[in-house]
Amino acid sequence: MQFITLLDYFLLPFYLVIIYTIAIFIRNNNYPPGHPWRPYFLTGLTVKIVGAILIGMIYQYYYGGGDTEGYFYHATIINSSFSESFNKWVNLILHTPPWYDGEYSAYISKMLWYQTKAEYTVSSIAAFLGIFTLTKYLPIAVLFGTLAYTGSWALFRTFAIKYPAYTRQIAWCCLFIPSTVMWGSGLFKDTLCMGALGWLTYSTFRILVNRELKPINFFILISSFILIAKIKLYILLGFIPALVLWVLFSYSHNIKSSMKRTLVKVSVIALCTGGFLFVTQKFAMELGGYSLSNVAETSYTTSRNIAINSGDEGSSYSLGVMDPSLGSMIKKFPLAVNVTLFRPYLWETRKVIQLISALETTLFLWVTIKLIIALGIGRIWRTISTDPTIQFCLIFTIIFAFAVGMSSGNFGTLSRYRIPCLPFFSLSLILIYYKNRPVENNILSFNFK
After folding, report:
1. Distance CA 407, CA 144 (A)
2. Under 8 Å CB-to-CB from 396, ≥6 apart: which residues?
3. Residue 257: pLDDT band by 50, 70, 90 thresholds?
4. Residue range 192-203: average pLDDT?
5. What is the pTM of this model?
6. What's the chain's Rg over C-alpha atoms?
7. pLDDT value at position 446?
8. What's the gap between Cα 345 and its chain centre?
9. pLDDT of residue 40
10. Which candidate in 45, 75, 100, 200 could, as Cys together with 224 as Cys, close a disulfide (CB 3.0–4.6 Å)?
């Protein structure tokens, strides 16, 4: 399917002018000349937009299709109902008709993803944006990237306010990691999830740290939570325990009695563990291969398939021999986290796109090793144990990296699935390092909003 046409290229400049006009207005009103955040605002947006365009062109002209094409195709089917009936279009956007409804069969019969909640949610959002873009791929993809950028910027603001001395480093972590730009900018599930995760982090920090109990913050929190839950519920399995423990460690110092403080910590951790187990069982179907009951089986099946087949042109990886049991899964914990954060190694690459991912993971590995050598394990541990925010970033990273590493089995899919944890992992690295190696600070004079 030729989902990018000449009309896409003709319309694209028109939407770019609108986006940049709004962006420049926001920048000039919120970040005047001299503001430390100003240099990153338009630059980050530009990188996101370029990423959305390039990845769409790669899927069109290099791969010849893919899931981004599927989302766009479903969006065109949904929007084709608009000419027949506005009411039908609204119902299809909201996914209200059952699949067997004869009145909608002309549309539902053409949509293979109608009964898959995650994929159809993305398609519905694309269809809604398509109403304003003549349902053309590149303008929709650029709007996806722009919406996701608002979440990335919210994530940047969250940490830049808390650690103003490290603004430049935080900007690189939140806005410019190559994988998050490549896979978190176009017409993908990952794009929406990355944006929502940024807003979820922002709103929870606003409510719990700044105690800004404004309706808008609760609206952002609830909306971003629902969006992630509908598209990739398993992201929340890593985020929520990390968030609860972050709140616990942030406020437990207010308890004067050491015995009571320890009791509270143990109780909350036990409650988190019980809640985690309950949710993974309750929503096993929605979580699929990421549910606690299925992740071991998924990993076992994946490893068997890898052993039987040669793999996707060198893209497959194996965590070694395993059986579908919880004990085997626990033994593979370090390997799963390692493969998510540090692989493929340079010598494991077989494709140009895979090489980009390998260069990025090599950089992460180099920075991690450099950090250990420069500071030592003891100093790193003391830094982590005294900063709840670093703990939050690392707990989410490790839980998420474990789940994704165990369940992917392929470097191609892994490079996309891991992107939600990369900003948090890189943030934890730079915070550990610079809290022990202070940078020059000439930006503290601003009263950030």
Report:
1. 27
2. 238, 239, 242, 243, 421, 424
3. low
4. 95
5. 0.86
6. 23
7. 35
8. 22
9. 96
10. 200
Report the pLDDT averaged over residues 141-149: 96
Which tokens in the block code for residue 315?
């893209």
Q: Which among 70, 69, 117, 113 has a CA at the least distance from the CA of 288?
A: 117
Across residues 160-172, what is the average pLDDT? 93
- HEC string for the chain: CCCCCHHHHHHHHHHHHHHHHHHHHHHHHHCCCCCCCHHHHHHHHHHHHHHHHHHHHHHHHHHCCCHHHHHHHHHHHHHHCCCCCHHHHHHHHHCCCCCCCHHHHHHHCCCCCCCCHHHHHHHHHHHHHHCCCCCCHHHHHHHHHHHHHHHHHHHHHHHHHHCHHHHHHHHHHHHCCHHHHHHCCCCCHHHHHHHHHHHHHHHHHHHHCCCCCCHHHHHHHHHHHHHHHHHCCHHHHHHHHHHHHHHHHHHHHHCCCHHHHHHHHHHHHHHHHHHHHHHHHHCHHHHHHHCHHHHHHHHHHHHHHHHHCCCCCCCECCCCCCCCCHHHHHHCHHHHHHHHHHCCCHHHCCCHHHHHHHHHHHHHHHHHHHHHHHHCHHHHHHHHHCCHHHHHHHHHHHHHHHHHHHHCCEHHHHHHHCHHHHHHHHHHHHHHHHHHCCCCCCCCCCCCC
Q: Are 297 and 284 in contact (CB under 8 A)?
A: no
Tens of pLDDT, residues 333-386: 889 899 999 988 888 887 777 888 899 999 999 999 999 998 899 999 999 988
Distance CA 176, CA 296 (A): 34
- Calpha distance 185→49 (Å, rounded): 7
Tell me, what amino acid is at 44?
G
**Identity (one letter) of the amino acid at 135?**
T
Burial class (CB in 10 A: 0-12, 13-18, 19+), 298: buried
